[in-house]
Structures are given as structure tokens and as C-alpha cells.
């Protein structure tokens, strides 16, 4: 029992040394903070903020985000600490509207050309009566078909590159953010919650890198190729294409559910474990004559500041994930809507095989959009659960 008490007292003095440069300076500073809370909060903020490595996170965000969106993690944290928690993205709504208009303008010529190809495909087949004319019509249809596929393939490869780049960007950003946010969680809650978040975030990064990028993206590419060529084989691979689509859709939802469940369970247990450990330590420290009140004031200041900084960094990370994925999702969304509209407008006049190709391209774009969206949601929820779970301490 005596050994345990000595160990506890030793831990108390280690914490004092951690919070301030020296034990003597700690006592003096703590008494000053008791008289001037604002100055103490500022000192704790500087100590905690300087210990969180945000330089790499900020550099990666500024390099990857779209130039039209103004957002800085450092600036947002400073705004929160100064009492201004309002989030301003510098006219993001107007920029989104303009971006959608630009994407629609870029796809307008492709839409018109593919509609004309659809009309020509119907003309070649519907006005062929004799056997010779049917053969000529079939030949003309195949020419139109491959011309349309050439245009479609170029558009899909561009969308495929956008999705792959978005996934790589968000994974690289999370690799930089996780260590910094883990340090902030340690200051606000404790090592158990920080370690739990770190492990879960690494799992999420591994899933995004090894499954979303290395497995699901190639499957979507194969789905596109099979779906585009499927009408020429009289839809012999229709079931296989449907299986590939279901594999991506169900797989992403399953992974998201698993990650939310894992993070949710740890978010319920680990902060409570840290709270129990801290409460035992604080009660032992408060029982020491002449030190308990000082230590309690210093601890309240440090923990409160740590929670605020942790929440600011976490919310900034949430916004950054949205910023990195917003433009790619808008572009993929416009791509999907354009080809869905193309299939709808071409169906009355075009050959059903060409309409099937248009619909398959829209489905491929939807799968790419789902991959980016699910990956963003996975990281978003992982951060959000940690922020919410570690805001309440014992």
C-alpha cells in the first residue's frame, strides 16, 4: 500500500513537470493562474498547441485542396481559441454553383454528340427492310457504336482518375492528421482513448488504401469494360456485371458499418477508462496539503484547454475531409447525371444496345461516386465519434 502511494505521488509530480518547465516554475505559475485565469489559459494554450504537429497537415491540405476554396486548419484553431467558432469557407456556395455550371458546360458537347449517335443508330436499324439493307444497317450501327464508345471511354477514364486521385488525397491527409489529432486527444482525455483512436484510424487508412483503391477501383474499371462490350455479346455477361456492381456497393457499406461499430464501441469504453485513472490521480493529489488546490486549478485549466484544442483540430479535420472530397464528388455526380439523362433522352430514338451502354456508364460513375463518398464518410464518422466521446471527462 505504501509503495502504491509513493508511486501515485511520483506520478503527480511527473504531471507537474510535464505541464510546466520546472517544478518551481510550476508552483509559481499555478498560483498566478489562480489569480488570473485568462493568462493561465493562454499559457496552457501555447504549451498544448505547440506540442501538436500541424505543419505537415496544413501543408498537405493547402497542396491538395482546390484553389477556389479558402480553408486553413491553423487559422480555424486560432479562431476557436479566440472565441469565434463560426465556420466560414469563403463563398463556398457560389463556388459550388459555378463549378457545377462549368462541368455541365464541358459535358454539353459530349451530350449532344452522343444523342446524335443514338439517333443515327436508330435510323440505321429501323429503316432497313431487305436483308442487304439490314446488313448495311448493322455495319453502320457498329461504326456508330464504336465511335460512341471511344468518346465514352475517354470520359470514364477522366472520371476514374478523379476518383482515384480523391481517394489518394484523403488517405494521405488522414495519414498526416492522425498523429496530430492523437496528441490532442491525449491532452484532453488520456492515452487510452488516444491509442484507441490511433489504431482505428490506421485500420480505416488501411481499408481505404488496400481495399477501396487497390480492389474496388479496379473492379469498377472492369465493370465498365464488361458493361460497355456486353451488348455486343447479346448480354451474356449481364449477371457477372451485376455481381461486380453488387460487390462494390455491398462491400463499401459493410466496411463502413464495421468501422462505425468498432469506433463506437471504443468511444464508449476508452474515455471512461481514462477518466477513472485521472480521477484516482486527482483525488490523491488533492489530498496533499498545500499542493492539492494548486494542482487542481492547473489540471482544470490544462484539461479544459486540451478539450477545446482537440475539438477545434478535430472539426478542422472534418471540414478538410469534406473540402478534399467535395469537388471530386461534384464532378462524378455531374458525370453520372449527364449519362443518366443521356440514356433517358436517347431511349425513344436510339438502339437499345446503345442506350444500355449509356446506362452502364452512368452506373459506373455512380459506383465511383459511392467509393469516394463512403471513404469520406468513414473518416468523417471516425473523427466525429472521437470528438463527441472525448468531450465528456470525469
Q: How would you spell out the order of helices and strands?
A: HHHHHHHHHHH
**Alpha-carbon Rg, integer:** 29 Å
Number of strands: 0
SS-based structural class?
A: mainly alpha
Question: What does this entry look like structurally?
Answer:
This protein is an all-alpha fold. The chain is 86% helix and 0% strand. The protein contains 11 helices and no strands. Helix 4 runs antiparallel to helix 7 and helix 7 runs antiparallel to helix 10. It starts with a helix and ends in a 5-residue tail after the last helix. The N terminus is likely disordered.
Protein traits:
mainly alpha, 11 helices, elongated, disordered N terminus, 394 residues
Amino acid at each position: 500500500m505504501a509503495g502504491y502511494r509513493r508511486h501515485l505521488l511520483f506520478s503527480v509530480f511527473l504531471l507537474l513537470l510535464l505541464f510546466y518547465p520546472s517544478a518551481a516554475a510550476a508552483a509559481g505559475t499555478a498560483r498566478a493562474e489562480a489569480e488570473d485565469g485568462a493568462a493561465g489559459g493562454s499559457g496552457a494554450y501555447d504549451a498544448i498547441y505547440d506540442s501538436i504537429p500541424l505543419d505537415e497537415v496544413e501543408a498537405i491540405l493547402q497542396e491538395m485542396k482546390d484553389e477556389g476554396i479558402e480553408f486553413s486548419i491553423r487559422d480555424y484553431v486560432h479562431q476557436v481559441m479566440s472565441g469565434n467558432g463560426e465556420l466560414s469557407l469563403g463563398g463556398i456556395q457560389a463556388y459550388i454553383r459555378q463549378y457545377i455550371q462549368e462541368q455541365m458546360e464541358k459535358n454539353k458537347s459530349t451530350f449532344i454528340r452522343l444523342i446524335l449517335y443514338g439517333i443515327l443508330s436508330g435510323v440505321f436499324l429501323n429503316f432497313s427492310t431487305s436483308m442487304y439493307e439490314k446488313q448495311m444497317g448493322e455495319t453502320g450501327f457498329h461504326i456508330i457504336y464504336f465511335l460512341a464508345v471511344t468518346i465514352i471511354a475517354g470520359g470514364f477514364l477522366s472520371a476514374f482518375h478523379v476518383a482515384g486521385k480523391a481517394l489518394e488525397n484523403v488517405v494521405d491527409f488522414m495519414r498526416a492528421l492522425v498523429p496530430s489529432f492523437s496528441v490532442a486527444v491525449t491532452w484532453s482525455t488520456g492515452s487510452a482513448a488516444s491509442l484507441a483512436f490511433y489504431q482505428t484510424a490506421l485500420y480505416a487508412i488501411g481499408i481505404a488504401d488496400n481495399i477501396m483503391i487497390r480492389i474496388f477501383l479496379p473492379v469498377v474499371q472492369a465493370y465498365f469494360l464488361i458493361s460497355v462490350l456486353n451488348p455486343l455479346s447479346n448480354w451474356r455477361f449481364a449477371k457477372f456485371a451485376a455481381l461486380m456492381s453488387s460487390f462494390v456497393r455491398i462491400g463499401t457499406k459493410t466496411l463502413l458499418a464495421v468501422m462505425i461499430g468498432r469506433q463506437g464501441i471504443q468511444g464508449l469504453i476508452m474515455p471512461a477508462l481514462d477518466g477513472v485513472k485521472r480521477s484516482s490521480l486527482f483525488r490523491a493529489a488533492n489530498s496533499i496539503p498545500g499542493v492539492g488546490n494548486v494542482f487542481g486549478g492547473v489540471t482544470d485549466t490544462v484539461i479544459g484547454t486540451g478539450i477545446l484544442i482537440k475539438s477545434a483540430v478535430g472539426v478542422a479535420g472534418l471540414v478538410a475531409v469534406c473540402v478534399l472530397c467535395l469537388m471530386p464528388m461534384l464532378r462524378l455526380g455531374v458525370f453520372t447525371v449527364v449519362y443518366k439523362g443521356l440514356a433517358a433522352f436517347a431511349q425513344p430514338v436510339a438502339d437499345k444496345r446503345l442506350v444500355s451502354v449509356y446506362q452502364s456508364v452512368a452506373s459506373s460513375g455512380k459506383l465511383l461516386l459511392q467509393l469516394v463518398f463512403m471513404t469520406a464518410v468513414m473518416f468523417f464518422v471516425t473523427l466525429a465519434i472521437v470528438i463527441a466521446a472525448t468531450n465528456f471527462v470525469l
